[in-house]
Amino acid sequence: MTASNERSEILAAQRNDDSFSTLFEELEWRGLVHVSTDAEALSNLLEGESFTYYCGFDPTAPSLHLGNLVQLLLLRRIQLKGHKPLGLVGGSTGLIGDPRPTAERTLNSRETVAEWVGKLQAQVTRFLSTEGENSVRIVNNLDWTAPLSAIDFLREVGKHFRVGTMLKKDAVAARLNSDEGISYTEFSYQILQGFDFLELYRQYDCKLQSGGSDQWGNLTSGTDLIRKVEGVSAHAIGTPLITNSDGTKFGKSEGNAIWLDAEMCSPYAFYQFWLNQADADVIDRLKVFTFMSRAEIEDYARQVEEEPFRRAAQKRLALEVTTLVHGAAATQGAIDASAALFGQGELSGLDAATLAAALSELPTATGAEGSSVAQLLVDTELVKGLGEARRAIAQGGVYVNNAKVEADDAVLAAGDLLHGRYAVLRRGKKTLAGVVAA
């Protein structure tokens, strides 16, 4: 099956849950509405005739991440209701970047931003249907901002914004109170995003914008501008920022975002991220990141309560989201790698890329044919010293590629280096490390 056909099958299988009386009710149950414009009017809009709506994605990196996935799935749920999505990739706003809480962004070159625009456009398209009367349309705000002169922009758009209101926006206020302050460039970002909504309203009769709740000030800059200029009401949905039950930011691993691009976050690492979700968080993740029904999710909630040791909900979550993002084959490869690493499958059956990705998540040491296994145990910090390494081997608790090491003077043989480069060390049942040939 081609990637295109698989993607079509994944999209075709997605459904909204008809156990809810309205889509807005389902969105609230899934925890996707932190703040919105008039809830009753918005619910009626979603239940009415087909209309156009959008979400913007700035090319500040060469890939989207899990926070963006929340928006993509919200767009898809609304598309399944029959409405028409616009995926805006910000070729102009990406040249500036929305204000971060603490410091100015480093501005990327025009060439870099243009390259990233293309990559993000392709990613957005993968999660939304490109078929039918409500197929996704990809737009770039550089198309309508580039032709404007600074004078035209100030006269036609800037005059509708009040500085006092702009200063009250959370992102701006946070920066004003920081040591870094805020430049006029980033201060102006909310005007550009507001102008996007106005332009999309004019071109496509776009009536709704979604985004993270931390973007609420930028979202309402658009609804306010449309009301002032066109005299009509537009809508916005702010999704909650997804956090873990302990309050830490979701989607961060040692300071790095969980990217949707397989080259930036391997399918194996992606799968493991979901598999390791805490019991306290996993049901909320199923609600947000899968199209599973309310009945299915409530059954998994019961299993988490009654049989948490089975981790059934985590396994289903990892399967669903990894398949959604990377496809069935890559997901199966991640599952096979997980099993093989812990002695439940053949490591030799893993392709080099999957094995390399799996080992990148483990402590590793450099080794070669003839390297002492005991020394490699020390080098990978599976043990504290050679004496402990020899005792572990003597007790029968050390494995190379799932084969028990029998002698304390054992060395790596040529055949131990899978794909000529990799070996897996295991101490006991669950403690793993990798060996990579120089």
From TrEMBL:
A motif ('HIGH' region) lies at residues 59-68. Its EC number is 6.1.1.1. Residues 357-431 form the Tyrosine--tRNA ligase SYY-like C-terminal domain. Keywords: Aminoacyl-tRNA synthetase, ATP-binding, Cytoplasm, Ligase, Nucleotide-binding, Protein biosynthesis, RNA-binding. The keyword Protein biosynthesis applies. GO terms for molecular function: ATP binding; RNA binding; tyrosine-tRNA ligase activity. It comes from the Bacteria. A motif ('KMSKS' region) lies at residues 249-253. InterPro entries: aa-tRNA-synth_I_CS, aa-tRNA-synth_Ic, Rossmann-like_a/b/a_fold, S4_RNA-bd_sf, SYY-like_C, Tyr-tRNA-ligase, Tyr-tRNA-ligase_bac-type, Tyr-tRNA-ligase_bac_1. Transmembrane segments: none annotated. It is found in: Cytoplasm. GO terms for cellular component: cytosol. It catalyses: tRNA(Tyr) + L-tyrosine + ATP = L-tyrosyl-tRNA(Tyr) + AMP + diphosphate + H(+). ATP binds at residue 252. L-tyrosine binds at residues 54, 189, 193. GO terms for biological process: tyrosyl-tRNA aminoacylation. Pfam families: SYY_C-terminal (PF22421), tRNA-synt_1b (PF00579). The keyword Metal-binding does not apply. NCBIfam families: tyrS. This is Tyrosine--tRNA ligase. It comes from Leucobacter denitrificans. The gene is tyrS.
